[in-house]
């Protein structure tokens, strides 16, 4: 059944107006806001967009996450939402949106806004089956070299700042984690970075190659030793602005550097994907890679494995099969 048909069936059976809040709720009693405020900044933005999309679907565009009365949802609503998401989005995206929906319903139950029976029935929707390929791409060694070279040739504050950004992105940091780095998180003697604002709020320590440590130290010669954010934005005159760099600022900086270095379009997450893939290809064990990447489970790390059939063949060649064949009699 097409997505348009599902939407028409939904519109014929449910009244959008009945799901809208009649009056604003305090943030502390609003299920969606309570759930979203439990997340890190990056996840919060993503899941708010997911809840906004679900709210618009349920009300023909008249409500968003803040104005929908989530405790009014029943199984017929959530089942219809699942059907539409299954048609409209990839399995991974649909399941992420369903996760946001279930978590919001759970907060409604915790806040006493839904009975146990109402919550149990509304949240009793299966995940969407199927597997999606990871979006994005790997950045090959020649492209990474071109980016580094362009930073070095740009002997300016911008060049040093961007080189330091490359230094931390090439060890698998998320864009949001880069923006939360403070000077105190960088330990040059141990070549480490302490990641405090991580996904799921799980702190971890990552390590930098010697060359990456030097790139950060060269940036600090200009940035200075004052406490605060490790990375600052620059104005049009390439002067430092004393505030924390934003996620969008990190993206724009890399896009500009990629254009100058004549490298095809990429994202900060492509560095993360490349970091994980390179370690897998080098034979590092997946549990260690998961810890470095900040993944809660190695199964998440395995999704980044794009080594293909050649890697499988190399893995088989590691087996010891002591067969020498029959000797000629």
Features:
329 residues; mainly alpha; hpI Integrase, Chain A; 2 domains; 3-stranded antiparallel beta sheet; globular
- CATH fold-type name of the largest domain: hpI Integrase, Chain A
Radius of gyration: 24 Å
Mean pLDDT: 86
CATH superfamily of the largest domain: Intergrase catalytic core
Strand content: under 5%
Largest sheet, described in full? 3 strands, antiparallel
At the first level of CATH, the class of the largest domain is Mainly Alpha
Number of strands: 3
The count of domains is 2
> How much helicity do the residues have?
40-55%
SSE series: HHHHHHHHHEEEHHHHHH
The count of helical stretches stands at: 15
Strand order of the largest sheet: 1-2-3
CATH architecture of the largest domain: Orthogonal Bundle
Rounded to the nearest angstrom, the distance between the terminal CA atoms is: 70 Å
Poorly predicted residue ranges: none
Helical/strand content category: mainly alpha
Rough outline: globular
Please characterize this protein's 3D structure:
With 329 residues, the protein is mainly α. The chain has two domains: 3-122, no CATH class; 141-308, hpI Integrase, Chain A (Orthogonal Bundle), CATH 1.10.443.10. Helices cover 53% and strands 3% of the residues. The protein is built from 15 helices and three strands. The protein has a three-stranded antiparallel β-sheet. Helix 1 packs antiparallel against helix 4 (75-88), helix 3 crosses helix 5 (91-110) and helix 4 runs antiparallel to helix 5. It is globular, with a radius of gyration of 24 Å. The termini are far apart.
């Amino acid at each position: 059944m097409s997505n348009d048909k599902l939407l028409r069936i939904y519109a014929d059976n449910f009244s959008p107006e009945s799901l809208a809040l009649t009056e604003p709720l305090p943030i502390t009693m609003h299920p969606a806001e309570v759930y979203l405020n439990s997340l890190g900044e990056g996840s919060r933005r993503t899941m708010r967009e997911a809840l906004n999309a679900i709210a618009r679907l349920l009300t023909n565009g008249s409500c968003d996450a803040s104005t929908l009365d989530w405790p009014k949802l029943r199984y017929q609503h959530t089942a219809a939402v699942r059907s539409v998401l299954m048609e409209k989005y990839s399995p991974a995206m649909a399941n992420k949106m369903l996760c946001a929906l279930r978590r919001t319903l759970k907060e409604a139950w915790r806040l006493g806004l839904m009975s146990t029976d109402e919550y149990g029935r509304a949240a009793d929707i299966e995940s969407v089956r199927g597997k999606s390929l990871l979006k994005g791409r790997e950045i090959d060694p020649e492209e990474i070299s071109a980016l580094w070279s362009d930073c070095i040739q740009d002997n300016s504050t911008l060049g040093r700042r961007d080189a330091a950004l490359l230094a931390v992105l090439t060890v698998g940091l998320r864009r949001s984690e880069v923006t939360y780095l403070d000077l105190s998180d960088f330990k040059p003697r141990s070549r480490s970075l302490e990641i405090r604002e991580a996904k799921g709020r799980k702190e971890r320590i990552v390590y930098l190659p010697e060359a990456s440590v030097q790139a950060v130290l060269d940036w600090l010669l200009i940035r200075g030793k004052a406490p605060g954010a490790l990375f600052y934005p620059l104005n049009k005159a390439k002067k430092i602005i004393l505030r924390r760099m934003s996620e969008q600022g990190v993206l724009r900086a890399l896009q500009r550097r990629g254009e100058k270095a004549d490298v095809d379009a990429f994202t900060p997450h492509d560095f993360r994907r490349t970091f994980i893939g390179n370690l897998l290809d080098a034979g590092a064990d997946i549990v260690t890679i998961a810890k470095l990447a900040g993944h809660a489970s190695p199964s998440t790390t395995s999704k980044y494995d794009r080594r293909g059939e050649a890697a499988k063949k190399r893995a088989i060649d590691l087996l010891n099969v002591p067969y020498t064949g029959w000797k000629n009699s």
